[in-house]
Amino acid sequence: MCGIIGFIDRTKSRMDGSSIKAALSLMNERGSGDGAGYAAYGIYPEYADYYALHVFFDNLGEPKRKVDELLEQWGEIVHQEEIPTTPQPGIKKVHIPWRYFFKPSEDLMAGRMDSENDVVTYVVMEVNANVKGATIFSSGKNMGVFKASGWPEDVANFYRIESYKGYIWLAHNRYPTNSPGWWGGAHPFNLLNWSVVHNGEITSYGTNQRYVEGYGYKCTLFTDTEVVAYLFDLLGRQHELSHEMIVKALAPPFWDDIDRMPAKEAELNKAVRLTYGSALMNGPFAIVVGTENGIVGFTDRIKLRPLVVGENGNRLYISSEEAAIRVLDPEVKNIYTPRAGEPIVGRFIE
């Protein structure tokens, strides 16, 4: 039921959030008012070299003190502030959205945590698992997630989404089924510069969860989509797979299809399935992922959820519905539906 949409300008020309708000609101019949959210890349050019940590605090007492102490233990807080919001009749402000701009300390990087990304990943997992009253829901560079329980237009107005300009936008209108409708459970889900919007259900969630937790990730946000962000980080950042290869691992061809492939192609697909069997995702889903160098869209292997692609010059759009794409770009030139499991990848022009 959920409505998803993603956009990239391959030249990094930025667009404000008013159009993505209108496009997502067009798909209100796909939501229930229990969650909506936006992710935008390129919105913090003045802090582009720092990690922008967006946090939900239940209060600014003990939870914030613990987060401050953890960040100061692992690096430097360059700037922090409450994320500007405007009260909306349709949103009950149950959390305080806060943001830090954070720089990990190079002196503390040794052994398993040998990069800034490792430190930030550790901080996110530690806070979300062990600091009651605090949830880090966005942790990338020069990007941010903005989400809450509410309808798309209310969430957009709450965060003043039109005041941000980005060259990648993701947006999601949630219809929760087997997980709670709360602020942290709204989409997008994020880790570092990976952000995920998802329509459907990951029925292999238990297997996928055990797989990523074997690598130190902690699933704490009560919805299956969280594991998709961690799978992309594991396969993309740690294992250095291309976007296309990540999709091949998560939504691989059926064995019967592999058996009919030419020998070299069959050998590759067999190797991927055997290596990443526990990462394979089952169930009906359509997914769009934002990354530091583009966006990726794909569906399950028999396409039980819709996905539509549009292109116009340097711009690529991926959505649940063609009508939403046409709100973003009335002059869109090329509209098509990808095959089941086919990766749609938009990268920046070098």
Protein model, in words:
By secondary structure, the chain is an alpha+beta fold. It has 2 domains: 3-42 and 149-347, 4-Layer Sandwich (Glutamine Phosphoribosylpyrophosphate, subunit 1, domain 1), CATH 3.60.20; 44-141, ACT domain (Alpha-Beta Plaits, 2-Layer Sandwich). The chain has helices at 18-25, 62-74, 116-130, 152-158, 205-213, 225-238, 243-250, 255-259, 263-275, 322-328, and strands at 3-9, 15-16, 36-41, 51-57, 75-82, 96-104, 134-138, 143-148, 165-166, 168-173, 189-191, 194-200, 285-291, 294-299, 308-312, 315-319, 334-336, 344-347. The strands form 4 sheets. Strands 8-3-10-1-16-15-17 form a 7-stranded antiparallel sheet, covered by helices on one side. A 5-stranded antiparallel sheet has the order 11-12-13-14-18, with helices on one face.
Spell out the blueprint of helices and strands.
Blueprint: E1 3-9, E2 15-16, H1 18-25, E3 36-41, E4 51-57, H2 62-74, E5 75-82, E6 96-104, H3 116-130, E7 134-138, E8 143-148, H4 152-158, E9 165-166, E10 168-173, E11 189-191, E12 194-200, H5 205-213, H6 225-238, H7 243-250, H8 255-259, H9 263-275, E13 285-291, E14 294-299, E15 308-312, E16 315-319, H10 322-328, E17 334-336, E18 344-347
Antiparallel strand pairs: 1-10, 1-16, 2-9, 3-8, 3-10, 4-6, 4-7, 5-6, 11-12, 12-13, 13-14, 14-18, 15-16, 15-17
Helix pairs in contact: 1-10, 5-6
* Broad shape: globular
* Rg (C-alpha, Å): 19 Å
CATH topology-level fold name of the largest domain:
Glutamine Phosphoribosylpyrophosphate, subunit 1, domain 1
Distance between the termini: 37 Å
> How many helices in DSSP terms?
10
Strand order of the largest sheet: 8-3-10-1-16-15-17
Largest sheet: 7 strands, antiparallel
Mean pLDDT: 95
CATH H-tier superfamily of the largest domain: Aminohydrolase, N-terminal nucleophile (Ntn) domain
**What are the segments in which pLDDT stays under 50 over at least 5 consecutive residues?**
none
Briefly note the structural class of the backbone.
Answer: alpha+beta
- Name given to the CATH architecture of the largest domain: 4-Layer Sandwich
Helix content: 25-40%
Count of discrete domains: 2
The CATH class designation of the largest domain is Alpha Beta
What order do the helices and strands follow? EEHEEHEEHEEHEEEEHHHHHEEEEHEE
The fraction of residues assigned to DSSP E strands is 25-35%
